[in-house]
C-alpha cells in the first residue's frame, strides 16, 4: 500500500521534469502530530509533478471528490430508464413481470417521458454520494495505511480497502438518502409527483423530516456491502490483471491500456456488488413506496422470491455502471495529471524477511 503524502525535494523534482522518461522514486510519508510513520517508496509520476497536486493533500482529496461527482452523477442519471423499470418490478411484480415487459408497460402508461421519472433527484443525490464515496475513500485509505504502517498495510491491504470504503459509504449515504427517497416515490407511486420541486414538499407534509431518512438504515444495509465489494474487488482485480494477464507493471502500459484494465476491473467488481446488495435494494424500494412501513415489514411483504425480483436488470445496470464509474474516475485523474499510485508491491523489508526465513529453512 503505502499511499502517503509524498515528500519531494524541489531540485530533484525539477531535474525529473527535464527527464520525463526516467522513473524516480520518492519517500512517501504521513504526519500525525509531527511524527513520521514507517514508509515505502512509491513511483512518482512526472504528470503529478507538473500538475502541482501533491498526493494526499487537501487539493488531491478535493479533486478526487470532484471526480466522484462526475463518475457517479453522470452514470446513475444515464441509467434512470433502467432504474425506473427495476424499481417497478421490485414493488409491483404482478404488473411489471420482467425487464422487457416493464419497459412496455411504463411507456404505455406514462409515455417515453415516464422512463425519465426521477432524473433530477438521481443526478443530485448520486453526485453528492459520489463526492463523499470517492473523496472519503481516498482519505480513509491514507489514514488507515498510516495507522497500520508499511508492512501491515500491504499484508492486510484487502482489509484496508474494505474498512476505508465502508467508512466512506457511511457518510455518502447520509448525503444520498433524501434524494433517494424522493426518487423512489416518484418512480413507484403513480401520480405522486412529476418533479423534484413537487415531491419534496409532499414528502415533508406526509411524514416530516422522517420521510427523508426513514430509508437510511436499509440504504446503509444495501450500499455499505455494495461499496465494500466495489472498491476491494476492483483494487484486487486490477492488481491481478496487471500481474497475471498483462504480466507487466502499470507504468509500462499505455494510458489506453490502463483504462481498459480499469473498465474490465470495474465490470467484474460490479457483478459481485449486485450479489451482496440486491435484497437490501428491494427493501429500500418497497420501504419508500409504502408510507409508514418498517424495514422488517417490507422484507416480510416481499418474501424470499420478492427480494430477488429485478436481479437481472440490476446486474446489467450495475455492471455497466460500476465499470463506467471507474473508467470516468481514472480518466479524470489522467486528464488532470493527478497522482495515481500503482497497484501495491511487497515492501523491500518484507522481501528481505522472507528471503532470510527461506535461507534459515535451507
TrEMBL record:
<feature type="repeat" description="Solcar">
    <location>
        <begin position="257"/>
        <end position="335"/>
    </location>
</feature>
<dbReference type="InterPro" id="IPR023395">
    <property type="entry name" value="MCP_dom_sf"/>
</dbReference>
<keyword id="KW-0999">Mitochondrion inner membrane</keyword>
<keyword id="KW-0496">Mitochondrion</keyword>
<dbReference type="GO" id="GO:1990547">
    <property type="term" value="P:mitochondrial phosphate ion transmembrane transport"/>
</dbReference>
<dbReference type="GO" id="GO:0035435">
    <property type="term" value="P:phosphate ion transmembrane transport"/>
</dbReference>
<keyword id="KW-0809">Transit peptide</keyword>
<keyword id="KW-0812">Transmembrane</keyword>
<feature type="repeat" description="Solcar">
    <location>
        <begin position="59"/>
        <end position="143"/>
    </location>
</feature>
<keyword id="KW-0677">Repeat</keyword>
<dbReference type="GO" id="GO:0005315">
    <property type="term" value="F:phosphate transmembrane transporter activity"/>
</dbReference>
<dbReference type="Pfam" id="PF00153">
    <property type="entry name" value="Mito_carr"/>
</dbReference>
<keyword id="KW-0472">Membrane</keyword>
<dbReference type="InterPro" id="IPR044677">
    <property type="entry name" value="SLC25A3/Pic2/Mir1-like"/>
</dbReference>
<dbReference type="InterPro" id="IPR018108">
    <property type="entry name" value="MCP_transmembrane"/>
</dbReference>
<dbReference type="GO" id="GO:0005743">
    <property type="term" value="C:mitochondrial inner membrane"/>
</dbReference>
<keyword id="KW-1133">Transmembrane helix</keyword>
<comment type="similarity">
    <text>Belongs to the mitochondrial carrier (TC 2.A.29) family.</text>
</comment>
<keyword id="KW-0813">Transport</keyword>
<feature type="repeat" description="Solcar">
    <location>
        <begin position="156"/>
        <end position="240"/>
    </location>
</feature>
<protein>
    <recommendedName>
        <fullName>Phosphate carrier protein, mitochondrial</fullName>
    </recommendedName>
</protein>
